[in-house]
Amino acid sequence: MTVTTSPAILSEDQALSLVEKVVKQSEAEEVFVSLSTGEESLSRFSENQISQNISKTVFSLNITSYFGNKSASAAVTDFDEEAIASTIKRSQELAKIAPADPEWMPLLPPQTYDLPPAAFDEATAAASPLARAEMVRQACEIASQGGANASGTLSAEASLYAIASSTGLRACNHATEAEFSFTARIDNGSSWSESTAWSIRQLPIAQLAQQVVDRAIASRNPRDITPGIYPVIFDGAAFANLLPWITWGMDARAADEGRSFMSIADAEGKPAGNRAGEQLFSPLVQVQRDPAHPLLRSGNFFGDGLSNNYLEIIKNGVPQSLSYSRYWAVQKGTESKGDFYPIVMTGSDQSLADLIAQSDRAILVSRAWYVNYVNPKTSEVTGMTRDGTFWIEDGKIAYPIKNLRFNQSLPDMLRDVDALSEVKRYGNSVVPGVRVKAFNFTSITDSL
């Protein structure tokens, strides 16, 4: 194997050739090789002007060697023949002295991937600092015209992930992603939102900037309200920070061992199965794993090579299945279908404004901030509203209110969903805006 210099991103043929050569060089009983390579670029801005432009080239080759049920991994970030050979050797040496893994699973055989590979957009991969600067200038000009100070980031990434193993498994995905995060502040008001896409041309820069500036202006001089239980309308950007906590709690092992809101206990409080198939949530709640969704078009396999295909997670408010690791699937005599991501929640053809117009009284939440578990077993979380929280009355935004801390059981939140808006992409999730009949706020916070 002769490799000398590292390009910004390898082609699929180059990547598969490299991981194949590493497999052939290995002297372990079994070996699994993964390669991550790509280029990440980011423009950071504050006070209505660019403050930083950075670009980073990524190359990471990870080698896991197996001797029976013993294994060890070693990684190299040098695109160099001797460095790679040394890493192969180090992985083998460590594997020989590693402790036996009681939950060891054999490497996967070759897999069939039914969905198309991830989307790759040449314009995103080639987006120059000047092109990103022009997009940032457009957003900052909107903020300046509104008397607001804007800050945030605009990023573009081209990446490749390839795997190979001694069992004949081979897979590769070439992908692009762009993300725009925008915060506007004026006096004591603020607002924020973000947008993610597989093509930088799909980012609604001007539309999002205008929406955020208008909401920041409207959020000034917030009023006090008494903490308590209120109907809530979540902007999609806020709901995207809550929904994943539910799917993380749908792990089969945690449920079967009594550590999840999906657990069932017997009369003595001992684990007695899980709640898959029960009506736990509102019938409006429909959640899928859908990497081929038009807004996502993400990778068609997981890191271990397992196929990432379409999967119903929650249908008509009923959890259809749980997420089984390969080890736990064997223990339970079922099939592992991989993790629950990327997640897509079905929405409607209504806008967020429509949800507001249909509400007699509610709180509009623009952002759910600093969300953390209070009780992982019940999926109760705490967090704060931020960047624009409003009181809705008679179908209109009446006035801004001070930010609130919440303590909320998320299964109860999904049970109380009674309206949905259209979907948008935030990070690696596609979610709608959501109206919930009851949400528990515990105190006022000083955050903007």
Q: What can you tell me about this protein's structure?
A:
This protein has helices spanning 12-25, 81-97, 122-125, 129-145, 205-218, 236-239, 243-248, 252-256, 326-332, 352-357, 410-415, and strands at 30-46, 49-67, 70-76, 149-165, 170-186, 189-197, 229-234, 263-265, 271-274, 287-289, 311-315, 318-319, 343-345, 361-365, 368-375, 380-385, 389-393, 396-400, 404-409, 417-426, 429-444. With 448 residues, the chain is α+β, with helices and mostly antiparallel strands. The strands form 4 sheets. Strands 7, 14, 15, 16, 17, 18, 19, 20 and 21 form a 9-stranded mixed sheet that branches. α4 (129-145) runs parallel beside α5.
Secondary structure layout:
Blueprint: H1 12-25, E1 30-46, E2 49-67, E3 70-76, H2 81-97, H3 122-125, H4 129-145, E4 149-165, E5 170-186, E6 189-197, H5 205-218, E7 229-234, H6 236-239, H7 243-248, H8 252-256, E8 263-265, E9 271-274, E10 287-289, E11 311-315, E12 318-319, H9 326-332, E13 343-345, H10 352-357, E14 361-365, E15 368-375, E16 380-385, E17 389-393, E18 396-400, E19 404-409, H11 410-415, E20 417-426, E21 429-444
Parallel strand pairs: 7-14
Antiparallel strand pairs: 1-2, 1-4, 2-3, 4-5, 5-6, 7-21, 8-9, 10-11, 10-13, 11-12, 14-17, 15-16, 16-19, 17-18, 19-21, 20-21
Helix pairs in contact: 4-5
